[in-house]
Write a structure and sequence with these properties.
Blueprint (H helix, E strand, L loop, with lengths): L6 H4 L4 E25 L2 H8 L3 E18 L6 E18 L2 E18 L30 E6 L3 E8 L17 H4 L14 E23 L19 H6 L5 H4 L9 H4 L7
Antiparallel strand pairs: 1-4, 1-7, 2-3, 3-4, 5-7, 6-7
Length: 273
């Protein structure tokens, strides 16, 4: 059998081939979602109905669903849809005592990004086994991968509406909530409540990028031994002695040395060294 190896590309010539992801397109955004309904459990709704006061304490992103679909008649572009499942924590006052109630808010955003026109189909080992039924779920894909990065949401406002008034809120706002998310609240979430409804306004900063697999040839040398010697852990029980050995975090006290410049000189606000 003929040997087919390209040593100059795969390993020779002092180079190493790495398999990584190449960013084809990305964007950043700040989204303000107003009057987002918060879903509570049956127990949470009972506490809300008997509460005299309510305030929002925190908001945390539990998980996010990121889906990619090709844009018709626009080759190379893809629609990225991100759905955030956000836990909202409230502090309510019931009979003069403070109680904590948690609910779920669901928001969704979509963007259009360029994802290339790759036609190569990738198959991964260990996915689907040997010729799975109808060759389904074998790991074959030629779609790009979308990645969404964000920080914890900022709660901009909270409202409590009475659903007895048809104009106050949507009483039958049905939404499909994954069972894995409901389990985090210890019970089923009520999606068609006729009682008081909480709505929040959320601000979310996000960065979304779309990537594809690629191979890069980089220069490499033999394995190098680090020059730095290992420092043994101190067994001194004196916390002040340990604190004195820590370097002063100068960078944490350094402000941003940025001075605005005239638009004509650099096209906007720049930084002077």
């Amino acid at each position: 059998m003929q040997e087919n190896r390209n040593t100059s590309f795969c390993a020779g010539g002092g180079g190493t081939v790495i398999d990584t992801m190449r960013v084809l397109d990305c964007c950043r955004d700040r989204d303000c979602f107003e009057d987002v309904k918060v879903y509570l459990t049956q127990c949470g709704e009972s506490v809300l109905q008997n509460s005299a006061n309510l305030r929002t304490r925190a908001a945390h992103i539990l998980c996010a669903e990121v889906n990619v679909s090709e844009v018709p008649f626009n080759n190379g572009f893809y629609q990225v849809v991100v759905r955030y499942y956000i836990e909202i924590e409230f502090e309510v006052c019931v009979c003069g005592k403070s109680q904590t109630v948690k609910g779920l808010a669901v928001v969704e955003k979509d963007v259009i990004l360029y994802g290339g026109e790759g036609r190569a189909i990738s198959f991964k080992s260990g996915v689907g086994g040997f010729c799975a039924p109808c060759c389904a779920n074998t790991g074959a894909s030629n779609d790009p991968v979308a990645i969404a990065e964000t920080v914890e949401p900022i709660v901009l406002g909270t409202k409590v509406s009475d659903c007895s008034c048809p104009c106050a809120c949507v009483c039958n706002d049905l939404i499909d909530i994954p069972s894995s998310v409901e389990e985090l609240f210890g019970g089923a979430l009520v999606t068609n409540s006729a009682g008081p409804t909480i709505t929040v306004s959320l601000g979310i900063f996000s960065v979304i990028r779309i990537v594809r697999p690629t191979q890069l040839l980089i220069q490499a040398t033999d394995y190098s031994v680090p020059d730095k010697e290992c420092t043994p852990a101190s067994s001194n029980d004196n916390p002040c002695a340990l604190f004195r050995t820590m370097p002063f975090p100068t960078s944490q006290f350094r402000g941003i040395d940025c001075k605005p410049e005239p638009p004509a000189s650099r096209g906007g606000c720049g930084c002077k060294g």
